[in-house]
Amino acid sequence: MPQETRIALFLIGELVAALRANDPDAFKCWLSGGLQDLGKPVVEKLLLDWLAPFLIEAEKDRLIAWHLG
User: CA distances (Å), 60 to each of 1, 38, 67, in order?
Assistant: First the structure.
Protein backbone atom coordinates (compact mmCIF):
# COMPACT_ATOMS: atom_id res chain seq x y z
CA MET A 1 0.00 0.00 0.00
CA PRO A 2 1.47 3.39 -0.96
CA GLN A 3 2.54 5.70 1.86
CA GLU A 4 0.10 8.42 0.73
CA THR A 5 -2.79 5.95 1.04
CA ARG A 6 -1.71 4.98 4.56
CA ILE A 7 -1.54 8.63 5.58
CA ALA A 8 -4.98 9.29 4.08
CA LEU A 9 -6.56 6.35 5.92
CA PHE A 10 -4.97 7.40 9.19
CA LEU A 11 -6.12 10.98 8.66
CA ILE A 12 -9.73 9.92 8.08
CA GLY A 13 -9.65 7.90 11.30
CA GLU A 14 -8.32 10.82 13.31
CA LEU A 15 -10.80 13.28 11.80
CA VAL A 16 -13.69 10.96 12.67
CA ALA A 17 -12.35 10.55 16.20
CA ALA A 18 -12.14 14.33 16.62
CA LEU A 19 -15.71 14.72 15.39
CA ARG A 20 -16.97 12.04 17.76
CA ALA A 21 -15.16 13.70 20.65
CA ASN A 22 -16.61 17.07 19.59
CA ASP A 23 -13.07 18.46 19.62
CA PRO A 24 -12.75 21.24 17.04
CA ASP A 25 -9.13 21.97 17.95
CA ALA A 26 -8.06 18.38 17.28
CA PHE A 27 -10.05 18.36 14.03
CA LYS A 28 -8.38 21.55 12.83
CA CYS A 29 -4.96 20.23 13.84
CA TRP A 30 -5.41 16.96 11.93
CA LEU A 31 -6.91 18.79 8.97
CA SER A 32 -3.96 21.18 8.86
CA GLY A 33 -1.49 18.31 9.07
CA GLY A 34 -3.31 16.47 6.32
CA LEU A 35 -3.16 19.52 4.09
CA GLN A 36 0.58 19.80 4.65
CA ASP A 37 1.26 16.10 4.07
CA LEU A 38 -1.17 15.32 1.27
CA GLY A 39 -2.13 18.64 -0.29
CA LYS A 40 -5.45 20.41 -0.62
CA PRO A 41 -6.92 18.42 -3.55
CA VAL A 42 -6.36 15.08 -1.81
CA VAL A 43 -7.81 16.26 1.52
CA GLU A 44 -10.85 17.81 -0.17
CA LYS A 45 -11.52 14.55 -1.99
CA LEU A 46 -11.18 12.60 1.25
CA LEU A 47 -13.62 14.87 3.04
CA LEU A 48 -16.17 14.88 0.24
CA ASP A 49 -15.95 11.24 -0.80
CA TRP A 50 -15.24 9.43 2.45
CA LEU A 51 -16.16 11.55 5.44
CA ALA A 52 -19.30 13.38 4.28
CA PRO A 53 -21.45 10.24 3.72
CA PHE A 54 -20.97 9.25 7.36
CA LEU A 55 -22.08 12.60 8.77
CA ILE A 56 -25.59 13.65 9.64
CA GLU A 57 -26.70 17.12 8.56
CA ALA A 58 -26.02 18.66 11.99
CA GLU A 59 -22.44 17.36 11.92
CA LYS A 60 -21.94 18.67 8.39
CA ASP A 61 -23.14 22.11 9.49
CA ARG A 62 -20.87 22.02 12.54
CA LEU A 63 -17.92 20.98 10.38
CA ILE A 64 -18.52 23.91 8.02
CA ALA A 65 -18.82 26.28 10.98
CA TRP A 66 -15.47 25.03 12.37
CA HIS A 67 -13.81 25.54 9.02
CA LEU A 68 -15.17 29.07 8.66
CA GLY A 69 -14.10 29.93 12.20
Answer: 30, 22, 11
46 Cβ contact partners less than 8 Å away, ≥ 6 residues apart: 8, 11, 12, 34, 38
List the domain boundaries for the chain. Answer: 3-68
Distance CA 60, CA 2 (A): 29
Which amino acid appears at position 50 of this protein?
A: W
Q: Do 58 and 20 touch, CB atoms closer than 8 A?
A: no
Q: Which amino acid is at 65?
A: A
Contact 69, 27 (CB under 8 A): no
Give tens-digit pLDDT for 11-48: 999 998 998 898 989 999 999 999 999 998 888 888 88
